[in-house]
Amino acid sequence: MSSSCSSNGLLPSSASPRDQDDLEARPANEFEHDGHDLTDESDPFDIAQTKNAPVEILRQWRGPELTLNFLFKAAFVLVLYVKCIEALVLNACRRFRYTLDLKREDEKEKRRRMIRSHAQVVRAALLFRLAGEQQIVLGPSATPPTATGDYAIGLEQLASMTRDHNISSLQQYGGAKGLSNMLKTNLATGITGDENELIRRRNAFGTNRYPQKKGRSFLRFLWEAWQDLTLIILIVAAIASLGLGIKTEGLSRGWYDGASISFAVFLVIIVTAVSDYRQSLQFQNLNQEKQNIQLEVMRGGRIMKISIFDIVVGDVVPLKIGDQVPADGLLITGHSLAIDESSMTGESKIVHKDQKAPFLMSGCKVADGVGTMLVTGVGINTEWGLLMASISEDTGEETPLQVRLNGLATFIGIVGLAVAISVLVILLGRYFTGNTKNPDGSVQFIKGETNVSKAIDEVIKILTVAVTIVVVAVPEGLPLAVTLTLAYSMRKMMADKALAIYETSLSNNMDIQVRRLSACETMGSATTICSDKTGTLTLNQMTVVEAYVGKQKINPPDDPLKLHSEAVSLLCEGIAQNTTGNVFVPKDGGDIEISGSPTEKAILSWAVKLGLKFDVLRSESKILHVFPFNSEKKRGGVATDSKVHIHWKGAAEMVLASCTRYLDSNGSLQSIDEDMDFFKVSIDDMAACSLRCVAIAYRPYESDKVPTDEESLDKWVLPEDELVLLAIVGIKDPCRPGVKDAVKVCTAAGVKVRMVTGDNIQTAKAIALECGILNCGADATEPNIIEGKVFRAYSEKEREIIAKKITVMGRSSPNDKLLLVQALRKGGEVVAVTGDGTNDAPALHEADIGLSMGIQGTEVAKESSDIVILDDNFASVVKVVRWGRSVYANIQKFIQFQLTVNVGALVINVVAALLWVNLIMDTLGALALATEPPTDHLMHRTPVGRREPLITNIMWRNLLLQALYQVAVLLVLNFRGLSILNLSHDDRKHATIVKNTMIFNAFVLCQVFNEFNARKPDQLNVFKGVTKNRLFMGIVGFTVILQIILIEFTGDFTTTVRLNWKQWLICVAIGIVSWPLAAVGKLLPVPKTPLSKYLRKPFRRLRPARNA
Predict the structure, then answer these.
(1) Nearest-angstrom CA–CA distance, 750 and 745
(2) What is the C-alpha separation between 650 and 582, in angstroms, rounded?
(3) 102-135 and 155-164 are packed helices; what angle lies between their axes, rounded to 10 degrees?
(4) Does domain 881-1100 have CATH number 2.40.440.10?
(5) What's the pLDDT band for 605 if we cut at 50, 70, 90?
(6) How many other β-carbons are positioned within 10 Å of the β-carbon of residue 358?
(7) What is the pLDDT of residue 463?
(8) Residue 968 CA from chain centroid, whole number
(9) Residue closest to 8 by CA, chosen among 812, 731, 865
């Protein structure tokens, strides 16, 4: 859904890197046009928008205007009224009960704007008051702190200072240092973190949770289920029928008709409410998992990962690019720290934070720089907590397939409504003209003789039949089937360790977290996957295995005795200061704990073995300025006041290009000009062995050139020329076990795997060969393998052509990844992209399916993605493809099944029977076919892609064959049944009821047998694996048992009679013919051109005429 607020509980959405109109398969020459121009008007079900769809696109299926457009095309516009269509065909309260509630979304957005506006007004008033305080100083400007239990400051004073951004109060409390003393926090090591302390802090200052509105109860779902207009009409008809029946036939038998309709309606309501309630619980579980994000805090001197819910006031939290601010807080230290506050202020601008503006608001994002914060407010005591508490509600989600199916359901519903009106007119005409007869042959209506009460009773019965036809003909089950399939697939993927939707305690056992339900559905259509290398295709377990210091190769690489003391000293200083990692040495002499990114951990581990004393070096010098690692320049730097050294670390060939000298093995400085080729060859050799090459360099700097004031220091650009090369290290990150097989599965499934990495092109090539992405060295030629800078230099048209040929892209920037995704999508590909960095957010958002990394991914990347790969494993991506295809295939199975039933159901004229058929079709049928697990057969198909018709020619063949057979048999039984079944000599009334019972029974059994056919639309063996699907077998068994009960024991209610064993055999035989008929039908060839193209031609001819 499109919203300025994240769907993730405590986190706001990042500023969208592009417009919310995410249009699929848009031709290159149409990219400047409005999204509405993309829809093919000749195809009412062609939706170009499939991700982050605007509300207008979603609303069009809910209003009468589009329905009128369908009516015009279907030539029924002269017959039907708009309100009737909107109420009966669209039937929004039922059909859209699982989708996005647009009215509620509008109300939420208004409330969100109101809260934001209120926050802005309060902030403006406080700034005005603060300005007055600066002009007229009258006594203390801050309320003296009030002790709260063990702490020297109270909750209200702390929350007020943070919420009001009151600098004068902060100064009164002694700044960050004074405030930390009041909160008993060590700014260097954080709180101790023992359980008793955490309990005290939660009791004093609250928890980092906000009140959530309770989900709707089961009774509420029952109340909503019966408010369906068609069901209300049937309930009214049942009451009228009950009253008139008792009046005309007496209490003993007169209540049968009304009671049978009431029971059928009651059953539909119960099943609908149970299904809706279970679905609501699914959404609640999904939302809870979204809110439970993991972040790093400093406790007891060590960096540890905890849940956002476990943050307490007094915690010290390190911040880096892409992180979210987990609570209100105060900046302790920071370098180039920039915060995106758009989620709270509504203004799309970046706010720089320093000691002059130290207040940080919960829910905002770190746009740039690094820093540490002291938590001062949590949960409901923050603006973000107030905002989320006021709008937190479970909502549905409009998936692309639901949008397409809503269009299909509307179109079919109009046809069904037209049939129902026709039936109503014909039956009323026949009745009042005396052409309708009772089972005994007597005329039902004789002018002047039939009393008014009996005539009204018969009219109500006719009206009930017409309304029931609408109930059956309008296929609300189509959009419902999407949600049922997704929900069931999610539960099954849990067992396959492929999806995280349950409570936090289970999240460690999952591989994937789905942030957008429709992502599973879209993933089934993916034609290409653009994957990162590090951690996705590799294990992300990095170790330094080669090292060059000067021209000397150190073997083993961590032997300090082979290095000069000057080289060791400079290396350790640079590594200790120029890092976002941490080294914790336990006082009890336990194992050293190293935290940080895998690359940082590998280099820190290497340095520790060389003799690095992390805490000592960090305390001996002060960091003057930091240039955080930049994925464009692929290096990061830091300036220290220890003789003012500027240390750089990053991609080897890029750092090497800035070096003019190197430190040799004797600790002497040498010119690098003559030895540059040696270092380049060394880098290439390491890269060819799949090693990530990182260079470490430094340069001395004159202290008098360092800016002295804070503002100038913040704007200081660290010099990156005339560097002295200290070392080049080769870091090994082995391929994941099984990744080669996973790539092979994708290739067999027609999904092309592309590697997009920031690593050296030679490293990328070596890993691609090892993973099977490149088959042989001969494939490693341009444009199969290409550097990012080469690709971005092409024109837009050239990129579209080149993109399809690219298999490996090395030294790519996030913008290169974005350009590749755009080029592939313009070429018609359905693109899945993996990413972990903040700068990957545009590509993740642009892709049809964004896959972020759970371990290395930043919160900005995760929020821009649709699925979070919790274990960063490529094999998990393949699982989603497999299950996504299963979702799509199951929907197609249900469509084939339901459309077959739709045609045959119009022949039945028994109200209770029709409602029972509707129950089979809409809920039980959807659930039975939604429970089919994925098979290997799915992964040997080509992907459906972007424009594959939902109803394929194979499906048309199957459903038309079955529908024609069923209609033919039922019509023959209807008009010749008395003679065929040897009932001509029986009592006519009894014989007619037996015939109708046979028709009803045979029809239901046809659907039972056809459910097996729907399992395998394109395979002869429809029974393969059926016994493994217990839910399918259970539903089929339940249907059969209930059908037997309806026929044998509830005849008075369903207007049926008991059948003997011969008649049951005839019904079973009629149904079982569906199996051999389906097998024969599958031998018939179908044309490659989709039938939908032929169906569109009349509409295309009609459109110019209408426009003229």
Answers:
(1) 9
(2) 18
(3) 90
(4) no
(5) very high
(6) 21
(7) 79
(8) 45
(9) 865
DSSP H or E stretch at residue 117: helix 102-135
Residues facing 849 on adjacent strands = 832
Per the CB < 8 A criterion, the answer to whether 601 and 595 are in contact is yes
Indicate which residues carry an active-site annotation: 532
User: pLDDT confidence of 66, banded at 50, 70, 90?
Assistant: very low
Longest dimension (CA), the chain: 123
DSSP state of 353: -
More confident residue, 426 or 72: 426
Res. 282 pLDDT band, cuts 50 70 90 = low
Q: Is 789 exposed, middle or buried (0-12, 13-18, 19+ CB in 10 A)?
A: exposed
Mean pLDDT of 593-608: 89
**Structure-token pair, residue 161:** 């200072």
CA distance 7 to 515: 8
pLDDT in tens, 562-585: 888 888 999 999 999 998 888 888
| CATH code of the domain made up of 512-538+736-872 | 3.40.50.1000
**389 token code pair:** 């508490």
Q: What share of the chain is helix, strand, coil (3-state, %, to 5)?
A: 55, 15, 35
**For 120-158, what is the HEC assignment?**
HHHHHHHHHHHHHHHHCCCCCCCCCCCCECCECCCHHHH
The CA-to-CA distance between both ends of the chain, in Å, stands at 38
CB atoms under 10 Å from CB of 942, counted, come to 10
State the DSSP string of 42-105.
T-TT---EEES--HHHHHTTTSHHHHHHHHHHHT-TTT--HHHIIIIII-HHHHTTTS--HHHH
Percent of all residues in the chain with a pLDDT value above 90, rounded to a whole number = 18
Please report which helix (H) or strand (E) contains residue 164, including its range.
helix 155-164
Neighbour tally for 25: CB within 10 Å: 17
Instruction: Of 608, 174, 119, give the one whose Cα is nearest residue 384.
Output: 119
Judged by DSSP in three states, 657 sits in helix
What b/e sequence results for 855-875 when a residue is b if at least 16 CB atoms lie within 10 Å of its CB, and e otherwise? bbbbbbbbbbbbbbbbbbbbb
The mean pLDDT of the chain is 77
Alpha carbon 287 to its chain's center: 11
Domain spanning 543-732 has what CATH number? 3.40.1110.10
Contact between 855 and 877 under an 8 Å Cβ cutoff? The reply is no
Of the candidates 616, 762, 605, 779, the one whose C-alpha atom is nearest the C-alpha of residue 691 is 762
Contacts of 855 (CB under 8 A, 6+ apart): 535, 540, 870, 871, 872
1101's enclosing H/E stretch is: helix 1091-1107
Per this entry, what is the length of the chain? 1108
pLDDT tens per residue across span 418-472? 777 888 888 888 888 888 877 667 788 888 788 887 888 788 878 777 777 776 6
Query: CB neighbours (10 Å) of residue 1090?
Result: 18
Q: Do domains 512-538+736-872 and 543-732 have the same CATH topology?
A: no
| pTM of the predicted structure, to 2 decimals | 0.71
Domain boundaries, the chain: 218-288+398-473, 512-538+736-872, 543-732, 881-1100
d(CA 551, CA 572): 19
**What are the helix (H) ranges across 621-662?**
652-657
pLDDT given at position 989: 81
Q: Which residue has the tokens 């380049």?
A: 680
Q: What are phi and psi of 252, to 5 degrees?
A: -65, -35
Pairing of strands 691-700, 512-514: unpaired
Q: Report helix angle 452-473 to 874-905, nearest 10.
A: 150
Shortest CA distance to 951 belongs to which of 906, 892, 901, 1022?
892
User: Coil, helix or strand for 365?
Assistant: strand
Q: Are 727 and 686 in contact (CB under 8 A)?
A: no
